[in-house]
Amino acid sequence: MVKDILGEEGLHFDELNKLWVLDSEVTQQTTELKEECKNFVDKTGQFQKTVGGLTELVDKLAKKKMKAGHSGSHL
């Protein structure tokens, strides 16, 4: 009965009888979301590195092509 009253007020006990403001399910979902966000940020960082490398490669190829085009026109 006391747990029901506390639950209505947003207070919950875990399996060790610790008092929590959030329900244990909400706490679990929050932890999972935190991990998913970390993974997303890590993958986004990897993607940015890959795109940066690709951009550098395209720039180098464009410069080589420009040099080849200019040197051929002097003949």
From TrEMBL:
Q: Which InterPro entries match?
A: FT20
Keyword Coiled coil found: yes
Q: Biological process GO annotation list?
A: cilium assembly; protein localization to cilium
Q: Which cell locations does it reside in?
A: Cell projection, Cilium
Going by the UniProt record, its keywords in alphabetical order are: Cell projection, Coiled coil
Lineage, top-rank taxon, reads Eukaryota
Instruction: Give the signal sequence positions.
Output: none
Cellular component (GO) terms are: centrosome; ciliary basal body; ciliary base; cytoplasm; intraciliary transport particle; neuron projection; non-motile cilium
Name of this protein:
Intraflagellar transport 20
